[in-house]
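Box S2. Input/output pair 1.
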Amino acid sequence: MFNVTFISQSEKKGIKRVQAVLDRYAIRISDNTWNTDITQEGLKVVYETLKKITTKQVAVCCYKKTKGNMVLFWSLGKTIQ
């Protein structure tokens, strides 16, 4: 079981697409941030679902929390800076 945080910097239509997916799997803690405890299999489902909707307007990062640190687990779409 992982505690993960998803951060989205999507634009235009990508915002609504990402929100629809992540709202199904995680609790929204701000406009573009979600947090949840999730299994490896569940995380794979989220990744594959987001991968299907990824366009130039989508940018999502997944951070895994470990001992007080947040480590980038994966990212999809355009580069978030």
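Box S3. Input/output pair 2.
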Amino acid sequence: MSSFASAGFVVFILLLFVGIYLSLFGLPGTIIIFLDVLLYALFTGFTQVNWKVLLFLLIFALLSEAIDFWAGSTDAHKPPVNGQSIWGALLGAVTGMLILTPALWGLGVWAGFFLGGLAGLLLMEWFRQSRLKIPHQATYGALLAMMGIKAVKGGFALIMIFVSLSNIYS
């Protein structure tokens, strides 16, 4: 593998991580994952990722974003994206990777990154909510709905990454 191809693969993997991370904040992370895999397929001549896989990923990305859009119309809590939540999620993601990677190996890297990031984001939101006066705090139901929506969207992102990497490495 040439150094250009190696650098391209590193960018590919980093964009997969970016996709998971963005999905924590209600941004179109699954679309980023799909576009990343599409670009990888274009650069490799569709030898490792074919159109069936891309169609599957597109359906999952669109379904994930539709669920997120629908959830925006419910009373699920939407935490603000600020420096504390970004750093909390990043610290949680790295910690989750370090904890789950020895136990689950490759899957632990991705699952740990998402679950740790979700835990870090929830912890920062919990701290933020505790500083608010009671009338301004989100209800437990709204917080649970937020957590469920983020878990579903992250689960879709993890499935997309698993399918992509299993096709590349098989």
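Caption for Box S3: The chain has a mean pLDDT of 93. The chain has six helices and no strands.
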